Amino acid sequence: MFDWITGFVVRSGYVGVCLLMLAENIVPPIPSEIIMPLAGFTAARGQLSLVLVILAGTVGSLLGAAFWYYVGRRLGSERLKHLAARHGRWLTLAPDDVDRADDWFRRHGAKAVFFGRVIPTVRTLISVPAGIAGMPLPQFLAWSVLGTSLWTALLAGAGYLLQSQYERVADYLNPVSTVVVVLIVGWYLYRVVTFRPAGREAAK
């Protein structure tokens, strides 16, 4: 995978970095923890500019974030509440949960977007509630730019500084990404198993 990504980045340049980060944010086939350090490593060899690598990675990531933001915006809270009423167990949501989550996001949306953009897996997921809550697009993009540019700069900079030892970045960060994914999946399964519709709890 390392050789393939490096070769792809060398052949396609900044467009390739942008496309890989876009794909990582829509349907994560390759984590950014591998893409950006390898792009930084390529810049360290003098084949690309580190600044432009970071810019390309940020743009690609933002395009993916905007995609999921519009998915959430199109879905909307009312439609989500309707889905929660019909398929609450699998969504692990009751209609009241949607209202509470919407209220929480409206209070903490800026911080949630900023910090969410630097957490594996959450980077993709955080865009959906932002769209559902109707967070203004300029505000969403501004906080996403801050979080995303910080993340891509850290990863690309690590690859640039480590150069031939760039694989260490993936060695450290891949387990972190795996743990986050396992925790999210485990929490989802727990919610499915223990889910109780609000009406049933009230009836008791």
TrEMBL record:
What cellular component GO annotations does this protein have?
Answer: plasma membrane
What InterPro entries is this protein classified in? DedA_domain, VTT_dom
Organism expressing this protein natively? Microvirga aerophila
Predominant place of localization:
membrane
Which keywords does this chain's UniProt record carry? Cell membrane, Membrane, Transmembrane, Transmembrane helix
Q: Which Pfam families match?
A: VTT_dom
Write out the annotated subcellular location.
Cell membrane
Q: Which residues form the VTT domain?
A: 30-160
Give the membrane topology, semicolon-separated if more than one: Multi-pass membrane protein
Name assigned to this protein: Alkaline phosphatase
Q: Where are the transmembrane segments?
A: 12-30, 50-71, 114-134, 140-162, 169-190
